[in-house]
Amino acid sequence: MAVRRERHGPRARGRRIRRAAVVAAVAGGAVLPVVPPASMASGAAAGPARAASCEVRPDMRHTDWTPMNFLGDVVCPHNLVNTRVQSTTQSPVNGRMAFSPSWFVCWKPGTPQQGSDIWYYTQADSVSGNKRTKGWGYLPAAELQVTKHPVPGLARCSWSVTSTAAGG
C-alpha cells in the first residue's frame, strides 16, 4: 500500500518551501552548503594554497588490505590526485583521492617528487587498477597542503624503517 504525502497543511508547506529554495538556488547558480561527514569535518578545501596544520587522531583505527592494523592517523588537506601502489612515480595508480581532507596512517621515503622524498600511506576514495589493494596506496608529500614533512604526529611506516630514500 502506498503512503500518501500531505498536499496541504504545515508539513507539506515546509516541504514546498524547502524544495522551492533548492530549485531557486540551483537555477541561480548558487552553491548550496553541504555538511561533510564527521571524518571530514576539519581541515581546508583542496587547492594550491598550503594549509598550516593537520588534525592528529591518536585513537583512530584502520586495517589495510594485507590486513595490517594501524592505530592513529592524521587528517590533512591535499590535492585531488591518484594514489599509487608503491612510493614511486613509476608505480601503478590504484585509486583516486576525490575528497579533501583525508586521513593518512603513516609515511615512508620513496622517489623524490617536487623536493621531497616523503610519501603518505592512505586509502583512496575510489579504487582503480588492482582492486585487491582496495585503494590503499601512497600520496607524495608535494600533494599535501601542509608546510612541514613528515607531518608532525604521524608515525613512519613500520616496514620502511630500514628502507633507503631511493627505495620504494
Outline the fold blueprint.
Elements: H1 10-27, E1 55-63, E2 69-76, E3 82-84, E4 93-96, E5 102-104, E6 106-113, E7 116-123, E8 126-127, E9 136-140
Antiparallel strand pairs: 1-2, 2-5, 3-4, 4-8, 6-7, 7-9
Folded structure, characterized:
The protein has one helix at 10-27; strands at residues 55-63, 69-76, 82-84, 93-96, 102-104, 106-113, 116-123, 126-127, 136-140. With 168 residues, the protein is mainly β. It has a 3-stranded antiparallel β-sheet, with no helix packed on it. The chain has a 3-stranded antiparallel β-sheet with strand order 3-4-8, with no helix packed on it. The longest helix has 18 residues, at 10-27. The protein is globular and about 30 Å long. It starts with 9 loop residues before the first helix and ends in a 28-residue tail after the last strand. The model is unreliable at 1-7 and 11-51 (pLDDT under 50).
